[in-house]
Structures are given as C-alpha cells and as structure tokens.
C-alpha cells in the first residue's frame, strides 16, 4: 500500500550527481543542461506538473532584446539561438516573431536607455516618429511626450509548450522528474541530503530554483536573500472587433516604460491564447506569500490598466474579461541572482527573476549548469552575484 511504499522510499536514499529543486522554467532548463552533460539529475517539483501556482505557467511570454542594460540585450543574443535549438530538438514551435513596440517618455526614464542599448548592440530596430506611428500601429494612441520604437526581434514565446518541451527533452536524456514531492529539508555537506514528502535523496550538487519559495527553502541552509514576492493580476481584454490586435494580424507585443513622472509600467501581448482577448498587465504587484497567493486581493493595478486601455487602446473593452494570477520574485535592484550559496559551494542558487526571467530560461539553465559543474561560466555573471546585497542580507539562524 501507499504507506509502506512511502516508508520504503523514505529509508532508501537515492544518489544523484545533481538534484534541482523547482521545475519552473529555470529549474527545467538547468536540469536539461545537466543531463546534456551526462550528469545523473533529479528534478523535484512540489506540485503535480503542469501547475499554475508559481511563475512559469500560462500560454505566452514576451521575448525581446530591448532592455535598458547591455547585459540582458547581449544575453538574449545567445538566448534566441538556444530557443531555436530546443525548437529543433523537440520538433515544436516555441517562438513567434511579432516585434516588440516600446513606448515611453521620450527623454526621461527607461525609453532613451532602451533605445540606446538597441542601437549600440545593432539590434534590428525601427524608430517610429509621431507622424508615422499611426500608419504602422493603428488602434493604439501614443501618449503625449512619448517616443516609440520597434525591436524587430521581439515576439511571443509559447510558455506552457516550452516548459513541456524542455521537461520532455530532459527525460529523453535520462533525467528523472519527481513531481508532487515537496522538499521539506536540505542538509548541506559534501554530499547534500534532500528530504521530500516522498523520499530522501543524496547528491554532490544541488541547484535551488524555487521561484517565490526560494527563501522558504534557503531557510533550511541558514540563509536568506532580500527577495519580495508579489502577485500580478494577469488581465485579458476583449477586442471590440475580433482580430484588431491579433497575433495573426501581426500586432506586436508592447511595453510602456516608466519614468519618475509617469509610473505606467504596462505591457501587453497580441490576442492569441484566448480568442479575441489581448493580455495586458501592470508590471507592479502587491506583496504576497506564495502559499496564500489567492488571499491577496488588491486590484488597484486593474484600475490603472482600465484607465490606460480606455485612453490608449480604444479597440478594447476597458474592463478585463479574464483575470488570472501569477507571481514575481523581486530583488531590490530587479536583477537576477545566479550564484553559489555563500556558505556551501556545492549549492547553486537561481532566483529573483523579477518578472522578466522567462525569455532567459535557456541561458540561465546553461549558466546554472556551468556553475554547478564548477566550470568557468560562458558569460560574465558578476552583475548577478549575491554579494551585491551585503547590506540587505540577514541570517535565518
Ligand atoms: C504575469 C507574469 C508575466 C510575465 N511576463 C514575462 C514575459 O513576458 N517575459 C519574460 O521573460 N518573463 C516574464 N515573466 C517572468 C517569468 O515568467 C519568471 O521570471 C519565470 O517564470 C521564473 O521562473 P522560476 O523557475 O524562477 O520560478 P517558478 O516558475 O515559480 O518555479 C519554481 C518552482 O519551484 C517549485 N518549488 C518551490 N518550492 C519547492 C519545494 N519546497 N519543493 C519542490 N518544489 C518547489 C515551485 O512549485 C515552482 O514550480 C512574467 C511573470 C509573470 C508572473
Ligand atoms: O520580461 C518581459 O519582457 C515582460 C515585459 C515587461 C515587463 C515584464 N515582463
């Protein structure tokens, strides 16, 4: 019976080269890379897969090279190649090029930084003038004082499909996924002991990619990162005329960048996953505990979105037709954490993807794998090291 199976599992320790904790986009790509390097790898997930309770679910995500900082634009150079490689290996389409429309205060905040990064890194870009904006992007109103450009490489990633593809490839390479197994204890040491609701595992190396639950897991190792988890209301808005903002009509993904004066921080994707519904979200959420996400009921973001939609996207009904939930795990500077655990060099942490990590999944998986194998990382990850938070950190002991 189940009880005795559990008793047998709990007593028999199973050995792996590496245990990856958390089967979101980052853990799944890390496990896949480790298996590609012939490492005996276990990917643990607390929920039954696929699930909708973390940060990687949903049908779509934006992919883009448009960023304020060179490092992300450059990382995505390799990112696109690795996405294409997975598409080829798995025989599925994961990326649809739509372009990414960036709009924002022309001379302040993030817009001029993004423009500069794109041009400096020679990313195919079209700068739109106020005069020709309407001709290229009908049915969107460009706010007064805003500039607009198109990152031609931008588009949609089919997120759920991508997660399944990378997990399938991992298993084809001999990797093991145990879902519905929550990690309840991590005992660091030269061989790390990982206890779950279903068994006990040992590995020379562990990678923690637990998204919003990262600090709950790190508490077992006596360490905490300065992370904040927020809930995002994922809103879908109905087209007044079906197809006006459709992926098939090549309506682009878009981002409205903020500045000190205008705190819009809004982004959207063409209608695709639900017929005639355009996904538009606010990039700032309200603090939540991932185990009680649905108790966070703040909807002030939806009020901001309603005003924006009615002012700038006149072809949509300014009331969301569908609202789903997702979470960001924020660092104070909104940059990722990709590093060794400060006290245990055989535990690697990938966390704090701050609401923009999906597109980087293949690159992050590669880097976390390299760190775990003790290899020299293939790109300079100094911006992502934990020591930048020295003043924020506190011990959980
Ligand atoms: C609304 C929304 C829109 C976004 N849009 C974009 C976008 O357009 N483009 C983009 O690039 N990024 C976007 N992102 C960000 C991106 O989706 C995230 O950065 C990324 O999914 C984070 O992945 P993760 O693997 O770190 O976390 P998660 O997906 O949360 O994975 C962590 C996993 O760890 C598991 N876990 C936790 N604790 C345990 C435990 N004790 N035992 C076992 N398993 C455990 C969890 O169940 C979970 O499955 C968006 C995010 C949201 C919420
Ligand atoms: O990461 C992305 O591209 C999106 C859009 C901007 C805000 C967050 N996620």
UniProtKB/TrEMBL annotation:
Q: Which residues form a coiled coil?
A: none
EC number(s) stated in the UniProt entry for this protein: 1.5.3.1, 1.5.3.7
- Pfam families in alphabetical order: DAO
Q: Which GO terms describe its cellular component?
A: peroxisome
Which controlled-vocabulary keywords does the entry list?
Answer: FAD, Flavoprotein, Oxidoreductase
Family designation: Belongs to the MSOX/MTOX family.
Its name, as the record gives it, is Peroxisomal sarcosine oxidase
UniProt lineage: Eukaryota, Metazoa, Chordata, Craniata, Vertebrata
